[in-house]
Amino acid sequence: MRKRIIQFSRALYENDKYKFLVLQSISKEDLENGNLEDFIKLAQDQEASYYLVNRETYETIEVGQRVRITAGFDQLEPLPPIRTVVSIEKIG
Fold it and tell me: How does pLDDT run across 79-90, given as a tens digit for each residue?
């Protein structure tokens, strides 16, 4: 599953987890000019998700970085949903 990270949220979650929003696709122009509301709407159209990671992983990923994510079975139900990362691999 290849996805693109487009927006970080600096909100600290319980158990020292950070979250970021991942979309299947987004243009470079939309990435540079969009805002969080636009990204969330696009995420709902693409069935994208927020993902929870630890601080060390969070600090190594850049906005726009392509990644391959394996997520756990647990999922919180807001839109877009929130999932926990089991593994994440940077692509390119």
Answer: 788 888 888 888
pTM to 2 decimal places: 0.73
Q: Is the N-terminal amide bond of 80 cis, ω within 30° of 0?
A: yes
Retrieve residue 2's tokens: 């290849």
As a whole number of angstroms, the distance between CA 52 and CA 76 comes to 11
Note whether 21 and 39 are within 8 A (CB): yes
Note the pLDDT tens digit of each residue in 36-70.
788 888 877 877 888 888 888 888 888 888 888 88
- Dihedral over alpha carbons 4, 62, 34, 25 (to 10 degrees): -10
CA atoms lying within 13 Å on the CB side of residue 11: 10
Single-letter residue type at 34 = G
Hey, what are 49's tokens?
Answer: 């998700």
| Number of residues assigned to the chain | 92
Q: Give the Cα separation of 31 and 63 in Å (integer).
A: 9
